[in-house]
Amino acid sequence: MADHRPVDGAGENPLAELELILESDPLIDEVGFIHPTQLASLSGEEGVDAPGPKNPRFWSRDGKLGISTEVLLPLYKEARRAFFDAVRDFRTRCGSGGDGGGGGVGCEVMKHSRALLLVSSDFGTAWNSRKLVASKEESFSMYMDELRLSELILSYSPKSDQAWSHRRWVIKRIAGQTSSLPEIIMKESELVEKIAERSKMNYRAWNHRCWLVSYMTKERVMCELKESKTWAGLHVADSSCFNYRRRLMTRILEDLCCKDGVSSVDYSFEVYQCWKDELDWDEILIKRYIGREGLWLYRRFLSLCWIRHFTTHAHSTSCNSNYIAEQTTDPSFFLDKELDLVGSSLVVQDDHFDDFQAQALYSTTYILWLAKQMPSPLEIELRQRLTARNMNDLLSEFCPNSSFLSGSSAEDTK
Amino acid sequence: MGELAGDKHVKYILSVEKKKDSFESVVMEHLRLNGAYWGLTTLDLLGKLDTVDSDEVVSWILQCQHESGGFGGNIGHDPHLLYTLSAVQVLALFDKLDVLDINKVTDYIRALQNEDGSFSGDIWGEVDTRFSYCAICCLAILKRLDSINVEKAVRYIVSCKTLDGGFGCTPGAESHAGQIFCCVGALAITGSLHHIDKDLLGWWLCERQVKSGGLNGRPEKLADVCYSWWVLSSLIMIDRVHWIDKEKLIKFILDCQDTENGGISDRPDDAVDIFHTYFGVAGLSLLEYPGLKATDPAYALPVDVVNRIFFGRCST
């Protein structure tokens, strides 16, 4: 029941027009949907060199492609019809002895699925058909084309689950076969950062970056930490980015735990220093950007791991995953430092701004959370210090409704 | 405080089905089975499932089934666990599970379990704890949990636990309320909730409640009605729901209604959609809002439907 309604006076098939544009400019790396009036004014700027039709449906220049919102519906319908036809032909061809190769039919599937995905980014069946064709061809350049197409789709639909998943599928396929994998992984990491710039708190994007970590060497992980630091410092509200750092820091600890013999003392010191730097840096950010939840949550993680791995305490849990590094410090010293930070955060400098209230709340929940998670002798020590500093009343003032924070067990709070 | 505009929401859901020719609705057609689940479950919670022709729905669902036994999001689309669960849930709503070739569906799901206990969403291999939930919930409804390695499936889910007590989509991934629902739900169904540190997870979930009373899905995010379902159902399953302010949450959800044309949006004054309409109504049901059927937090189905499946009777 496909529609063949002409879109405007030209009556030309919008699908053919789009596919022609994509064919003639393989470097297009950004696509967007544009209102027809805006599209017309863009086309008007082209000057005499580009006469163009009266009612343009597409606009493309310098690697950018605009699609008129007016043409989306007919374009989608036509692309879907052409796509399903091509898939049917392809399956028939594969079924009748051939391997679907010879390019011909596979080409049609690739052509129409690309157009379809440009207007409907999560059309899973279209992504799947591309995987099917690509896995039959097994050519490296074809896999690279898939990464490019996925990037193009992400330019207008940065949260597309399917587009991100497609990248992982490609990387898994080529992982064992190419020496350029480290370079590809690095580019992937950069791509996430680029997309995260425009699309805040994008779970799918940051999850992809976390996934990449398992393909990184120890050295690369350290580089990633350094290279992504500036970005993180400028995007403190994007707590997903701090979760990425969490993943990197965890990986560093994992590498430390299964020492492969090479200069482990040096590496242990490097990790110790790295962890210390991260804690200091997070404190600087906390003081600079008042009331950011993500920074405080990141501190929970950093501090708990610090206590577990880099402080000497009598009752360290026996679980062997809790590796104690060779470099350690006195936990009391650490607790004092944290209490200083919390104490200074409880001073609400200006009642008119929510930020200071938020800072006080987050610092309170931070220290109470930490108390509950740390080994119990340390918890007792921390609670004694809170009392000694007269901080208990302040703490309850800033989170009056949170019975779960009181340190009592769940049953007591009922 | 306003009231739930139940009749308006029924009208809205029925109208979505008829409005099929806008670009916004056709680009959703690849997940129409999910849409059917959201819309029809909402109707059932509102006590209005009988306004729909069940034979028509069932026959359409069967046409979405692929020869492998899994279901696609619509006729002619590739199968995936996400749609297979919706198909089974909708059939359960209508008490029509007997139309299924249960062995076939079971075989499809079983084949997607990996060596480490995780589940791929389809033959292309993407792994995610969402798919673990789909598989486990589906098989439990079909009473075929014994066909997979439950122990390994549980172990994989537990390996996705984070330091803050929550769960992500894979090991090492960030906690996310939607993923937490999937993991807690799967652990609840398999009787494995003892793997959860309930106080720690409860703490994280409670911190999702923001000033407006609404819940967000992750730190630093805005409140969104859909998390009323994901956070709330998880809190109920781990018995910590008394840790949040329920009255404020009810008010937030009610404020997200379009009281003129029906439907619920993600936040007050945004455009409504069927997804948020379902999560808003289901959230209110979990909060025991009057006039709504009770919802099961693990199976994400009305309690009477779950009772019918497991006890063979309908307790209304």
From TrEMBL, chain A:
This is Uncharacterized protein. It comes from Eucalyptus grandis (Flooded gum). Belongs to the protein prenyltransferase subunit alpha family. The keyword Translocase does not apply. Pfam families: PPTA. GO terms for biological process: peptide pheromone maturation. One of its GO terms (cellular component) is CAAX-protein geranylgeranyltransferase complex. Coiled coil: none annotated. One of its GO terms (molecular function) is protein prenyltransferase activity. Keywords: Prenyltransferase, Repeat, Transferase. It comes from the Eukaryota. InterPro entries: Prenyl_trans_a (IPR002088).
TrEMBL record, chain B:
Keywords: Metal-binding, Prenyltransferase, Repeat, Transferase, Zinc. Its EC number is 2.5.1.60. The keyword Cell cycle does not apply. The keyword Cell inner membrane does not apply. Required for male fertility and root tip growth. Catalyzes the transfer of a geranylgeranyl moiety from geranylgeranyl diphosphate to both cysteines of proteins with the C-terminal sequence -XXCC, -XCXC and -CCXX. Binds 1 zinc ion per subunit. It is an enzyme of class 2 (transferase). This is Geranylgeranyl transferase type-2 subunit beta. Pfam families: Prenyltrans (PF00432). Heterotrimer composed of the alpha subunit RGTA, the beta subunit RGTB and REP; within this trimer, RGTA and RGTB form the catalytic component, while REP mediates peptide substrate binding. Belongs to the protein prenyltransferase subunit beta family. GO terms for molecular function: metal ion binding; Rab geranylgeranyltransferase activity. It catalyses: geranylgeranyl diphosphate + L-cysteinyl-[protein] = S-geranylgeranyl-L-cysteinyl-[protein] + diphosphate. It comes from Eucalyptus globulus (Tasmanian blue gum). InterPro entries: PGGT1B-like, Prenyltrans, Ptb1, Terpenoid_cyclase/PrenylTrfase. Its cofactor is Zn(2+). GO terms for biological process: gametophyte development; root development.
